[in-house]
Specification:
The protein has 399 residues and is an alpha+beta fold. The protein contains 9 helices and 20 strands. Strand 16 and strand 17 form a beta hairpin. The radius of gyration is 25 Å and the shape is globular. The N terminus is likely disordered.
Length: 399
């Protein structure tokens, strides 16, 4: 795509000490965040984590209880939403059904009295490759085409910051994946700053330069998608961004470049540079696709961890891979993703099996073991509100 007149750098976004408290619960707790100009930033988290509230604060649709919001170095905390250099693309697209595609895109420019609104609207439609459908109405377009029109309508205003609120949630899987690549391509072409809010891990990792994983109003970890996936710092990140096998045990040795952890009597090695804690009780993990499945006990070898024997309790075919659940005494269930290289499962239900993995594929968490559950909960807003209400009542009674 030709960037044309839209190749202008966006502005950076900075949130400083943001708190947002609603009656009964706190949605955001002491949030500090800086998004560089021209980047594609994803805010990822489950329902009720505060990501949509953060987006609404940036858009000016909500006011923070305390803290400051700066766009391009300018404090916009008290600035009305329509005066901020921000545009939002919503999941519903919110197109005017009685207007043509061209009229929808040009609408904002005409309201602001911008010259050559039609010409600029055509240019934005060419950018999303829909100018040939400019005379149609929204109901005559597919879901993906409507999404592109909504994007063109936002980009045509040349905002310093473009907010994407679950924009692909209404699309089917194949179209959603296609639009992920399209959005990333458009962001690269126009050079604006994109803030993308989503609960879809694959979507965040596919499109974003930087991902921030949010949990209960705070950012648990932030970094490049590869970094967060390969080296999660907490159990929440390890289990929300994909799946992980987590084990807890005492460190028995921390000499050299690795730590050795006793997991139900088995010595498991993890590189120090991939572990957040090196002494005491620690939680370590490995991703399911890093595991090798064996039908007989593998020979001990340097640089390799082995667990087993266990019993195959579940076999689930998912297309490109098969998921195996292996019950190992003293360890519970271990999940293995095996690529489908042959027809049918590698091992059958009820069979005895072992798992192994390269030491370099393991990681160690920063969590205290009692705070590192095997599976992270997806707490909804109502539950958070109820928990916070009980905490507030307890504080009042103590006072």
């Amino acid at each position: 795509m030709a960037a044309g007149a839209f190749a202008e750098a966006g502005a950076d976004l900075e949130l400083v000490g943001i708190h947002k408290r609603f009656p009964g619960f706190t949605a955001i707790e002491d949030l500090d965040l800086r998004i560089p100009a021209g980047s594609f930033f994803a805010l990822l988290g489950p329902s009720g984590c505060g990501k949509t509230t953060t987006l609404r604060l940036v858009a000016g649709l909500e006011q923070p209880t305390s803290g400051r919001i700066l766009i391009g170095g300018k404090d916009v905390t008290e600035v009305k939403s329509f005066k901020r250099p921000v545009n939002t693309v919503f999941q519903s697209y919110a197109l005017f059904p009685h207007m043509t595609v061209l009229e929808n895109v040009a609408f904002g420019l005409r309201r602001r009295g911008i010259s050559d609104a039609v010409g600029k609207a055509h240019e934005a439609l060419r950018l999303v490759e829909l100018d040939h459908l400019s005379a149609r109405r929204p109901q005559q377009l597919s879901g993906g085409q409507q999404q592109r029109v909504a994007l063109a309508r936002a980009i045509v205003n040349r905002p310093a910051l473009l907010l994407l609120d679950e924009p692909l949630g209404a699309l089917d899987l194949k179209l959603r994946r296609q639009m992920q690549l399209e959005l990333k391509s458009i962001q690269t072409d126009v050079g604006l700053t994109f803030l993308h809010v989503t609960h879809d891990q694959e979507e965040a990792m596919t499109m974003a330069d930087t991902v921030a994983v949010m949990n209960k109003g705070q950012i648990e970890q932030m970094g490049a998608p590869e970094e967060l996936y390969e080296l999660p710092r907490t159990a929440f990140v390890a289990n929300f961004l994909g799946q992980s096998n987590l084990f807890t045990g005492p460190v028995t040795s921390s000499k050299g470049e690795s730590i050795v952890v006793d997991i139900a009597g088995v010595k498991i090695e993890v590189p120090k540079e991939r572990a957040q804690r090196h002494t005491g009780e620690v939680t370590i993990g490995v991703r399911p696709e890093k595991l090798m499945l064996h039908t007989s006990a593998p020979k001990a070898a340097p640089g390799t961890n082995v667990l087993g024997p266990g019993r195959v309790t579940d076999v689930s075919f998912s297309g490109v891979s098969t998921q195996y659940q292996i019950a190992v005494p003293g360890l519970g269930l271990i999940t293995v993703f095996a690529q489908n290289m042959v027809f049918g499962p590698v091992v059958n239900l009820g069979a005895e099996a072992w798992v192994s993995w390269t030491v370099d594929h393991g990681f160690g968490l920063a969590d205290e073991p009692e705070h590192a559950p095997k599976f992270a909960s997806d707490t909804d807003t109502a539950t958070i509100a109820l928990q916070t209400r009980h905490e507030l009542l307890a504080e009042i009674e103590e006072a």
